[in-house]
Amino acid sequence: MQSFQFQCPTEILFGRGAEEKVAEKLRERGASRIFIVYGGGSVIRSGLLARIECILTSAGLAFRVLGGVQPNPHLSLVREGIREALSFHADFILAIGGGSVIDSAKAIAHGTANPGTDVWDFWTGRAHLTKSMPIGSILTLAAAGSETSDSAVLTNEDTHKKVGLNSPFNRPALAFMNPELTFTVPHRQLVCGISDILMHTMERYFTSVKESNEFTDLVAEALLRNVIAQSKIAVADPTNYDAMSEIMWCGSVSHSNFTELGRGKDFSCHKLGHELSGAFDVTHGASLTSLWGAWADYVCPDDPARFAKFAERVWEIRSGSAEEKAHAGIQKTVDYFRSLGMPVCFSELGIGVLSDDAIAALADSCTAGGTKTIGSFHPIDRAAAIAIYQKANH
């Protein structure tokens, strides 16, 4: 087992009715003025927002709400949220929703705690984050794992740039996880979420570390197999509590960094995919599945044994050489994404076949004009980024 450092301070309340303890837990932490962030109208139509407001009111907790979070969370709404949270004198930020809502809450917390700094500067590296506010989440979508992660993404609509930030200050203080709250999620969001969970795990499974991390590998492989198996049940019946609870918990474990201990993370596909989301405003999970097969084909020659192990342990592919098993495992993964109705190339993503100039622009943005590389399994430079985008460009 290789060296690692791990801390996940999030207090998790999991199971039916978990969200009903929100006031109790907020009061335990000394919170009294709660700034609530949510997305579209689903939390209103389901009655969840009104129920949370009633719980907070009954406990004597003041609150203010801000809705309108979009997929690929927008900087403009975060800035609005910071202004409102400051005027309200908020002392706790509460997200009700999925990953985009939670990421927005994280950004609002950072900006509110640092009113003299433009929040975007934390994402671009022009400022260093040294303090924030406590946040919590009432999860309504099993996908991004932001409820336990140290990461958050933000999109600047003016520059069409989507950027991730990793910081211990991104770790939520509280996560209320009731699988029943996912029952009304639209099919498209469900399968995108399932794909995101798998991608978070695979981006940690395929890294440059060659030495043994057997337990970490076993955890990752079991998580992948479980999500694949449970997804078949959940897609057929999204109100199946057992299947949705398994998927929800796997999402949290996957992005808590537990599946990378001793191995680290690569996240090349995420960074390549962020360029697609920033440029075309496509769904995060869909951007990843449209690229993964192209990325895997391109980098597989660096370590076919690793891909063969993945094929054997996740897809039970036993016959053939290491190279044959590796490519069979890649194809099985692509076929699985397609079986969910997820895109596995750019035309299926809905952005069409891109011109060479458009591909070059994506690669330039991803690699800062060729001045940096991304990832570790196979460091992706500008030429490699172009090659991978071209492999997916059909």
N-to-C CA distance: 41 Å
Please tally the helical runs, counting DSSP H or I stretches of 4 or more residues. 16
CATH architecture name of the largest domain: Up-down Bundle
The oligomeric state of the chains shown is single chain
- The assigned structural class equals alpha/beta
SSE pattern: EHEHHEHEHHEEEEHHHHHHHHHH
CATH class category of the largest domain = Mainly Alpha
CATH superfamily (homologous) name of the largest domain: Dehydroquinate synthase-like - alpha domain
- Extended strand count: 8
**If you compute it from the alpha carbons, what radius of gyration comes out, rounded to the nearest whole angstrom?**
20 Å
Strand line-up in the sheet with most strands: 1-8-5-4-2-3
Residue-averaged pLDDT: 96
**Low-confidence residue ranges:** none
Strand share of the residues? Answer: 5-15%
Shape category: globular
- CATH fold field value of the largest domain: Dehydroquinate synthase-like, alpha domain
GO molecular function: alcohol dehydrogenase (NADP+) activity; butanol dehydrogenase (NAD+) activity; metal ion binding; methylglyoxal reductase (NADPH) (acetol producing) activity
Pfam families: ADH_Fe_C, Fe-ADH
GO cellular component, one term: cytosol
Protein name: Iron-containing alcohol dehydrogenase
